[in-house]
Write a sequence for this structure.
């Protein structure tokens, strides 16, 4: 029953994500950019067109870039859903992909200014959340880690998990100055908070550190979490690439510090995650 339900939820995720990403990327109202003043008295340029009309130009570059990344991923996710019961490797990747769609749905539901697609964001968030719960449960209860893997420390992967987890601490460079000064964080624009800070610092940071420590200790839970987290980090790297491409296409100028510190670091981490995941999967039969 759970296996059938997970399939239904997975196909629902693909369908809803297809609507969200397609409309986000291609729908237009032929609107134009305009300036508004936020609650902090700052002048902010809104995009003025399409489903993201009421969002800042900078954020729209991020939203559309993420839409592009997940539009690319949807066929891969559908294939993984169809094959997940035939391969333990694909089951791990499928779960990691669901975590990526959950991340995407959370950002759409909590970051994007309210628009007519909100019911789609809501349904996508709900489907991804429960699909992730069922998928992780299946991973945890099944005997899918071979003995030969349990005898390996995987020090490289463990070290990467800790370093990769700490990489999201870069967001503190925005949070701490705002905390000290009492001013809004840089790039807060028309928004009240930044969900990415919450997801990365509140969830990805601690789970990555915990996974790294468990791998050093040869804890089975660490071996089961590793491929899921590596898949998610790979997706984040893809999203950052697509976001950068779209932002540049929209004429958004990125400072060299941002290109190297934020974009470059996440792309490198995503690339390394692919290599480590492929190495890990060699042991999964």
């Amino acid at each position: 029953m759970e296996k059938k339900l997970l399939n239904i939820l997975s196909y629902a995720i693909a369908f809803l994500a297809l609507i969200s990403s397609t409309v986000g990327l291609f729908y237009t109202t032929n609107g134009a950019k305009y300036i508004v003043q936020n609650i902090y008295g700052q002048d902010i340029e809104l995009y003025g067109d399409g489903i993201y009309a009421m969002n800042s130009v900078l954020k729209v570059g991020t939203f559309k870039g993420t839409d592009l990344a997940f539009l690319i991923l949807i066929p891969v996710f559908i294939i993984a859903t169809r094959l997940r019961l035939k391969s333990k490797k694909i089951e791990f990747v499928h779960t990691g992909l669901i975590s990526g769609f959950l991340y995407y749905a959370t950002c759409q539901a909590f970051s994007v200014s309210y628009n007519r697609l909100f019911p789609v964001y809501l349904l996508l968030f709900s489907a991804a959340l429960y699909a992730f719960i069922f998928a992780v449960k299946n991973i945890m209860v099944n005997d899918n880690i071979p003995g030969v893997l349990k005898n390996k420390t995987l020090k490289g992967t463990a070290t990467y998990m800790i370093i990769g987890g700490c990489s999201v601490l870069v967001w503190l460079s925005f949070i701490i100055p705002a905390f000290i000064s009492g001013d809004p964080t840089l790039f807060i624009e028309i928004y009240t908070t930044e969900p990415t800070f919450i997801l990365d610092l509140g969830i990805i940071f601690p789970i990555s550190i915990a996974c790294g420590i468990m791998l050093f200790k040869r804890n089975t839970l660490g071996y089961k979490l590793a491929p899921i987290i590596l898949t998610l980090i790979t997706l984040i790297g893809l999203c950052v690439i697509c976001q950068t491409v779209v932002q540049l296409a929209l004429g958004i100028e990125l400072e060299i510090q941002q290109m190297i510190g934020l974009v470059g670091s996440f792309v490198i981490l995503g690339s390394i995650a692919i290599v480590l995941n492929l190495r890990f999967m060699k042991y999964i039969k």
